[in-house]
Amino acid sequence: MKLKHLSTAMILATLPATGVFAAALDRSGQSMSAFLQPGNYFEAGISILDPDVAGKEAGSSTTSRNIGDMADDYFFPSAALKLQLNDKFSFGLLYDQPFGSDAEYSGNNAFVSNPGSDSVLSAGAIDGIVTKKAKEALVAQGLPVNDQTLAIAKGQVLASPQFQQLAGALAVANNYLGTGGTKVEVDTQNLSFVFGFQPNQNFNFYAGPVLQTVKGNVSLRGQAYSLYNGYDANIKETTGVGWLAGAAYQIPEIALKASLTYRSEIDHKTNINEDLSLLNFPGLTSVLAGLDVPASKLQAINSEGKTTITTPQSVNLDFQTGIMANTVAFANVRWVNWKDFSIQPYKFGKVSEAVGGLVGRPNGFNLVEYSDDQWSVNAGVGRKLSDKWAGNVSVGWDSGAGNPVTTLGPTEGYWNVGLGLQYSPTPQTFLAGGVKYFWLGDAKAQTGAQAGSDQYVADFSDNNAIAYGLKLGYKF
C-alpha cells in the first residue's frame, strides 16, 4: 500500500500543544519530529494554555476555605531548522522551552499572607513542642508518661515563665511575616544541535549537545508555609550543557516511522538570591534557641552558597504508520525522571535543617520534590482530506508525578482530547492549528516540609485546561 501523498497528514502527528500541561514542570514534550522530516525543513510554532486549577483547604489546615484559580495562563514558542547536507548526513537546530511553571494564589486562604491572623508556628506545631517538653520533664523526674500525667505536665509547661517568654517572642515575630500571595514563575530554554547519519534510506542515527537556560522566581506566603511565610528566591538565568542521542527507522512507502530519543539531565550551579523576612526579626536567635534549635544550626542560617538545579533525563518513543490510503495512525510515549528531581536553594536548605526537627524532618527538606516518574501517552489518527487540507484527532494521558504533590503545581496528570487542522497552500508550505481539552487529575497539595509523607494542606479537584497551538512549516 503506497502512501506517498501523505506528507501533510504525517506532519499533523506533531501539531503544537502536544505537551503543554504535563506532570511536574514538563511543558513542550521535547519532540524530535522536525529533525526527522525529509529534505530541508523549517518550522515555527506557539502553544498557549488556559488552565483552571482551584481547590479547598484540607488535611492539616485548620480551616476549609476555598482556593480560587491559582494557575496562570502561559504561552511558549518553538522553532526548528533541519538541513539535509547530503545523502548521508543531516544537521538540525531545535529550540523549545521544555520546563516551566506559572502560578499565583490570591484571595483569603492558607497560601496568602494575612498579617492579622497568620503566625510563625501553627497551633499544631506549638502543641507538639509543648508535648515534647512535657514528656521530657516527666522522664527527667522519673514519672510515668500517660494521658493524666501528660495533661498535668503540659499545663505546667504552658504556665512556665520560659514558655510565656517564648510565646511573647513568637507573637512579636508574627509581625515579620510576608505579605501578598504565594507565587512561582520558572522558565527554561533549550537549543539542541543535532547531527544525523543516515547509512541508508531506512535508518537515521543522531546525537548532539544541548544548551539549556533556567531562571525563575518563587515567593512563599501564607499560614501553610509557617516559618517560610515571607520567603523569596530569585534564580538568575544560568546555562547548563547536556546531550541527546537517538535512532529512527522508516519505510516511506507505507508512511512508517519510529524513533527513540534519550535526553540527559542537565546541571545548573547558581547563586540564588534568597530572602526570608523572618530573618529580620531581632529576637529570632533567642526564639529558635527556646525551641531547642542547636546553636551550630543557627549560625548556618545566614551563610551563603551555591545551589545545584538538575533538570531531569527523559526518553521519547514516537511511532506512526499508514493504516489506509491517505490515513496514518500515530503515538508518542514519554518518560521523565521526576522522581530523582528536587530543588533545595542553599539558604532554604540551611533554615530547613535548623527547624526541621520541629516538624519531624531533622535533616531538612526541599522546596520542591516529586515522588514518581512521569509517563505520558498521546495517540491519534491523521488523514489527508484533499490536496490542501488535512486533519487529525488524538487522545492523551499523563500519569502525573505523584500524589500528594507540591503546592506550587497541584495536579496529578490528565486525560485530554485534541483536534487539529492543516492547510497547505503549496506543496512546500503549511499552516497547522490545534486545540486540546484537558481533564486535570485531582491532587492533594503539600508543602516541602510535608513531602514524603501523606500529610497535605489543600485538596484540588474537578479542574481543567484548554490548550491552543499554531505552527508554520516550510520545506525547501
From TrEMBL:
Signal peptide: 1-22
Subcellular location as annotated: Cell outer membrane
Molecular functions per Gene Ontology: long-chain fatty acid transporting porin activity
Domain of life (superkingdom): Bacteria
Chain ranges passing through the membrane: none
Protein family membership: Belongs to the OmpP1/FadL family.
Protein name, entry field: Long-chain fatty acid transporter
